[in-house]
Amino acid sequence: MSAGLGEAAIGITFMHNGLRHIEEGFENIKVVAPEDGTWYSTAAVGIIEGAPELEAAKMFVDWALTKDAQEIGQQFGSYQFPTNPDAKVPEQAKPLADVKLNPYDLEWSGENRARLVEEWDKMIKDGKKEQ
What we know:
About 35% of the residues lie in helices and about 0% in strands. The protein has about 130 residues and is mostly helical. The chain folds into two domains: about 1-100, no CATH class; about 105-130, no CATH class. The longest helix has 14 residues, at about 115-125. The mean pLDDT is about 90.
């Protein structure tokens, strides 16, 4: 938003947020990605063990994975790519379909999570990266 208001030269955010700001009238914004690749995130839904309303939770997860549920966000300026293969890709997001994504090793990330979180916490606390 700061870039759209002219308060910053660049803004680093999720690309779908930039699309929404452009649609809201911030014409000075351009959504770009590094040519050598960019990172991404995947939204998730799940059920917490011991959930007090297990059947309702299952119904919600089943619904969240449907085509219709994954298309709702588009009505409100949310232009992520759906995970349901039958859901329509938002027109606004189609130009981003060819953005090069960096590979993500989910297994390695899980195995190294504790170490990475500890290193991140230390880096933030001390203001430097551990060598």
